[in-house]
Design a protein that fits this description.
The chain contains 12 helices and 21 strands. With about 425 residues, it is an alpha/beta fold. It is globular. It holds the Pfam family Orn_Arg_deC_N.
């Protein structure tokens, strides 16, 4: 497993993160345990801010669906980033954390009336309109509230990138947005500029996730700038914001080769600048929405090894005290991860094993065929790059509680999400009168 951020190996041969011994973290907080490297997290935020926002040409909006809680909102605010939310729950969390509402963008393909009213009441910066049904309802709700709402239109530009089919969102056949090649995107622009209580500010597109080829982002920027020119010609509307979404890839295994954030920024910003000059357009503010590439690398999940079972000549299964409950991505997407034994960080690899979870599902496999030192019950397994889409996608299958989340920094650990108890699991259960004893 490649060490990232502040991760090191101490004199005891243990993995440390943020100056905290992983073995001691498990002793103190239990396992499974999500560990977020706060120093590394802030470095990631700063790298994006410096690359896109420092010059004034761009704006960085953190995609909170990757990893969100109130502590994360505070860090994002302190590092000067905005926030992308996709539900009333995420919006509520941000507000309770005191996040500035004018720096919030609200996404989603089926926002409810209550969520739209909530966004209007909170006075958020922008709502990203996904379809005509939402546009009409939002305009009516804004009129009822006696206000005008700033909006972007989500566009599906017809670009397919090299990623898993479930996380490609820029192609025409998508649940998201107004398709560009069919002419529906232009129809949407004409409709929104005629809405009395909606203010058209610009466009949004997102071509997919876990993308390594910068050419895909460059091409998306060119396509969108061409569309912006057509919008101005046909409607006279000036596009002041171009939100190019997220999707910047990270390293999960040695097979992944992410590009440099600065190269990403130069590619996108220079393309928009040159296309605007070529077409005699006002240069729009470029917005990007990194989520995975900020939260993903800074997270490590710690597990305790339980049973070890070898099928002679076939496979050796190593079971941990977590699984698809705290990381459903391998089961959903076939995602791959790296791992190491945190308590045997200096020992040589001796065997190839497969890591399985404790759920009553044969598909509950976290890692197939990983090389590790000799594994024994009680060892601490560390799985890297689990900061994004692990905690936020965790679940209570088999009535297993969600793990705790800790931030680690300068040798200190702080719980930012408590471990769920059995009482938490039954908190919303009710026994109807006819089943009462």
């Amino acid at each position: 497993m490649k060490l990232q951020g502040t991760a090191k190996v101490n004199e005891a041969g243990h993995l440390t993160i943020g100056g905290c011994d992983a073995v001691e973290l498990v002793q103190k907080h239990g396992s499974p345990l999500y560990v977020m490297d706060e120093t590394f997290l802030r470095e990631k935020c700063k790298a994006y801010y410096d690359a896109f926002s420092a010059s004034g040409a761009g704006e960085v909006i953190y995609a909170s669906k990757a990893f969100m809680n109130m502590a994360m909102c505070r860090v994002i605010e302190q590092e000067g980033l905005g926030l992308d939310v996709v539900s009333g729950g995420e919006l509520y969390t941000a507000r309770r954390a005191g996040f500035p509402m004018e720096k919030v963008y609200f996404h989603g393909n089926n926002k409810t009336d209550s969520e739209l009213k909530q966004a209007i009441e909170y006075g958020i910066g922008h709502i990203v309109v996904d379809n005509h049904y939402e546009m009409d309802r939002l305009n009516a709700l804004a009129e009822q509230a006696g206000t005008t709402v700033n909006v972007l239109l989500r566009i599906t530009p017809g670009i397919e990138c090299h990623t898993h089919e479930f996380i490609r969102t820029g192609q025409i056949d998508s649940k998201f947005g107004f398709p560009l090649p069919t002419g529906q995107a232009m129809e949407a622009v004409k409709a929104v500029v005629s809405c009395s209580n909606l203010k058209y500010d610009g466009l949004h597109c997102h071509i997919g996730s876990q993308i390594f080829e910068l050419e895909s982002f460059r091409f998306a920027a060119e396509v969108m700038m061409n569309f912006i020119e057509e919008i101005q010609k046909q409607t006279g509307a000036v596009t002041t914001v171009l939100n190019l979404g997220g999707g910047f890839g990270i390293r999960y295994t040695e097979a992944d080769e992410p590009a440099d954030i600065n190269d990403y920024a130069r590619t996108v910003l220079s393309t928009v600048q040159s296309e605007a000059e070529k077409r005699n357009l006002t240069v729009p503010r470029v917005v990007v929405e990194p989520g995975r590439s900020i939260a993903g690398p800074v997270g490590t999940t710690l597990y305790t090894v339980g049973s070890v079972k070898e099928i002679h000549g076939v496979r050796k299964y190593v079971a941990v005290d977590g699984g698809m409950n705290d990381n459903p991505r391998p089961a959903l997407y076939g995602s791959r991860y790296e791992a190491m034994l945190a308590n045997k960080a200096t020992e040589a690899n001796e065997e190839v094993v497969s890591i399985t979870g404790k759920c009553c599902e044969s598909g509950d496999m976290l890692i197939w065929d990983v090389s590790l030192p000799k594994v024994k019950s009680g060892d601490i397994l560390a799985v890297s790059s689990t900061g994004a889409y692990n905690y936020t996608m965790s679940m209570n299958y088999n009535r297993i509680g969600r793990p705790a989340v800790v931030f680690v920094r300068d040798g200190q650990s702080a719980v930012v999400v408590e471990r769920e108890s059995y009482d938490d699991l039954i908190r919303n259960d009710r026994i109807p009168p006819y089943l009462q004893r």
